[in-house]
Design brief:
The chain is mainly alpha-helical. The protein is built from 2 helices and no strands. The chain is 81% helix and 0% strand. Helix 1 runs antiparallel to helix 2.
Length: 64
Amino acid sequence: MGFLQAVSQVVLGVNFLFLVLLGFSFIFIEPGTGPYVMAVLTLIPVVLSLVASVAIIYTGWDPF
């Protein structure tokens, strides 16, 4: 396993933690408020980095 895949596994774990925390916070915030908007905007980079880390792990890409 290369360095990039090891980092991707750490990023994947952190992303799952963030998704659990965001899911838990959606229970308590009301739609249409400022915190709700920030939670939705936070969801975008979390999902993008989750998809990227899964793609790196799945393909086995190691450029270094």
